[in-house]
Amino acid sequence: MVWLIMLLNKNKFNYPAILLALVVSFSIISCDKGIAPYPEVNAGQVGFDGKVTFYGSWPDSVQQTYIVVFKQALQSSSDFFPPNLSYVVGPIPYGTTEYSYNSIDNNGVSSFSLTPGSYNYVVVAQSTKSTLSLNRSDWTVVGIYYLSGDTTNPGTLIIKSGEITHNINITCNFDNPPPQPPQKSINKNE
Length: 190
Fold this sequence. Notes:
The chain has helices spanning about 1-10, 15-30; strands at about 45-55, 65-70, 85-90, 100, 115-120, 120-125, 140-145, 155-160, 165, 170-175. With about 190 residues, it is of the alpha+beta class. Strands 1, 4, 9 and 10 form a four-stranded mixed sheet that branches. Strands 3-2-6-7 form a four-stranded antiparallel sheet, with no helix packed on it. It is globular and about 40 Å long. The chain starts with a helix and ends in a 17-residue tail after the last strand.
């Protein structure tokens, strides 16, 4: 702006120079982001909901039960760690036979936030520890989300922008537990 005042003092009647200075000034002020588009506004919250059904007797040693969402299936114990560990729902009360949930109201760890995308491993996990732990050996998978009853491969949870994904239902059968990911064996006598 200083150069505009100097230009006006030198050229009191130089209208083209004044006009050019004003156009350049307004262009600089009004184009703070250049031609970049404004960010899209999310039309609503993202999340998922469903029901967890438990069959059989809960092990006496269980201290914590959560629904845990991973980007990828657990191939090693190091996969049980952020950013692969993406979201936690719960806790699920001990002895529950049926737990209806939604990921927005039942966010189990406030530092995790769910974003649109694909999540390839959604499980119900239990721990005998009373405090949260990121050690794979502290957790047992007791239920896995499968699509349309296909229990050969874990289902993929798709979260779309501005939408809630419904019917992410998981069955947990304590008498017939699912295969455990690496670094954890299950002993029915635990």
